[in-house]
C-alpha cells in the first residue's frame, strides 16, 4: 500500500509489479556518480521507476533534473524532507548504493528496502538456491557487476511478484 500511495503522490499510475527503485543518499562523485553515469542507460532500459532524493552535487542535480524532464513517468526527484524520506523508504522495493553509506543503508534495511550495493558489513548477497540474503551485491565492485546485481534484483522481484498472482489463481 505504501508503494501504491507513493506512486500516486508522484503522479504515476500505481503499479505494484513495476520495481520502484530509489537513490536514498543523493549523488556526488564520492557516492559513485561516475559509476551511475556508466549504467544509467541500462537502468532506463529496464522496466522500473526511479526516485532520487534531492540532495547531492549541483552537477548530478542538473543531470537528474534533465532525466526527470525526459522520463517524467519513470524518474522523480523528491525533496530532502523527513516525511518524503520515510515515504521513500516505506514505498520503494530497492535502494541503489554505489558506495558505502551506513546511515542510509540502515534506514533502508529497517523499512525492508532491498539494497543493490557493493559489499558492506551489514549485507548478505541473496542466494537464489537457499532463498536467503538481504541485498544484491556487486562483486567485484565495478559499474557492470553493479548493473548485474540490479538485474538479478529486478528479476527476483518479478519472480516473487508472479508468485502472488499464481497463488490467487489456485485459490
Mean pLDDT: 91
In DSSP terms (H or I, runs of 4 or more residues), the helix count works out at: 6
Ranges where pLDDT stays below 50 over 5 or more residues in a row are: 164-171
Terminal CA distance? 22 Å
Secondary-structure-derived class: alpha/beta
Q: Give a short account of the largest sheet.
A: 6 strands, parallel
> What is the ordering of alpha helices and beta strands?
HEHEHEHEHEEH
Percent strand: 5-15%
- Order of strands, widest sheet: 3-2-1-4-5-6
Q: Could you give the count of β-strands?
A: 6
Radius of gyration using CA atoms only: 15 Å
Specify the helix fraction band. 40-55%
Q: Which word captures the global form?
A: globular
Structure description:
With 171 residues, this protein is α/β, with parallel strands linked by helices. It has six helices and six strands, in the order αβαβαβαβαββα. The chain has helices spanning 2-9, 33-45, 58-70, 82-91, 102-111, 143-170; strands spanning 20-23, 49-53, 75-78, 94-96, 114-118, 136-138. It has a six-stranded parallel beta sheet with strand order 3-2-1-4-5-6, with helices on both faces. Strand 1, helix 2 and strand 2 (49-53) form a beta-alpha-beta unit. The longest helix has 28 residues, at 143-170. The model is unreliable at 164-171 (pLDDT under 50).
Amino acid at each position: 500500500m505504501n508503494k501504491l500511495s507513493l506512486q500516486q503522490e508522484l503522479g504515476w499510475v500505481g503499479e505494484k509489479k513495476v520495481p520502484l527503485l530509489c537513490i536514498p543518499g543523493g549523488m556526488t562523485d564520492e557516492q559513485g556518480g561516475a559509476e551511475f553515469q556508466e549504467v544509467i542507460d541500462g537502468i532506463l532500459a529496464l522496466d522500473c521507476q526511479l526516485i532520487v532524493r534531492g540532495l547531492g552535487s549541483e552537477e548530478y542535480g542538473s543531470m537528474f533534473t534533465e532525466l526527470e524532464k525526459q522520463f517524467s513517468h519513470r524518474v522523480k526527484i523528491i525533496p530532502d524532507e523527513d516525511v518524503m524520506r520515510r515515504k521513500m523508504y516505506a514505498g520503494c522495493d530497492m535502494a541503489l548504493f554505489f558506495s558505502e553509506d551506513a546511515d542510509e543503508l540502515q534506514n533502508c534495511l529497517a523499512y525492508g528496502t532491498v539494497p543493490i550495493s557493493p559489499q558492506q558489513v551489514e549485507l548478505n548477497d541473496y542466494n537464489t538456491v537457499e532463498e536467503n540474503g538481504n541485498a544484491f551485491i556487486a562483486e567485484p565492485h565495478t559499474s557492470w557487476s553493479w548493473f548485474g546485481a540490479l538485474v538479478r534484483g529486478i528479476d527476483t522481484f518479478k519472480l516473487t511478484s508472479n508468485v502472488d498472482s499464481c497463488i490467487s489463481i489456485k485459490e
